[in-house]
Amino acid sequence: MKRMFFFTFLILFFVSCKDQKEIPVEDGSSEYELSTEKWPKKLPVNSNAQAILNDWEEFKAFETTFDALYNVENKDDLALAIDDLIEKQKDLEASTYPEKFDIPQIKSRQKIFKTYMLKIKGDLHYRLDPQESILQMFEAYNAFRNQFNVIVNNTLDTNLILEE
Fold first, then answer.
1. What pTM was estimated for this model as a whole?
2. Measured in Å, how far apart are the chain's first and last C-alpha atoms?
3. Domain ranges of the chain
4. pLDDT for 30-41, tens place per residue?
5. 47-94 confidence digits (pLDDT tens)
6. Which of 54, 66, 140, 144 is spaced 20 to 30 A from 40 at the CA atom?
7. Burial class (CB in 10 A: 0-12, 13-18, 19+), 8
């Protein structure tokens, strides 16, 4: 019995005294900060579309708020920018669209953009990585801006097609 107690004690002693492996501890700052260098740039709007957009005050306010996204440094800044952008998007949605842009193609792309903004807000709320959602939002935003170019450059009269 004494031997068994002695060997058990000896095994426990050697097991507990072995060198501890260092477990790397992450401070979490890298996942808190955001890198905006990988984010795509805004697609340019041609001069004809820009002339129409310059008269649309709600869109100009929306654009200014969107540009603030490129200045965020961390997830808290992103959350504030997204909340502000959602408010500006609601104002834009409720505003009077210019006649040329008061069509379903513009409004549908705007809704898709709103969906991705809300997805980012959800990612931030549930502490998920928002990077994929951010890239999807930028893709939707560029499609929204590109639609302005498509509409202005489109010279085809849709009434001719619908009459036949």
1. 0.77
2. 103
3. 46-163
4. 567 888 888 999
5. 999 999 999 999 999 999 999 999 999 999 999 999 999 999 999 999
6. 54
7. exposed
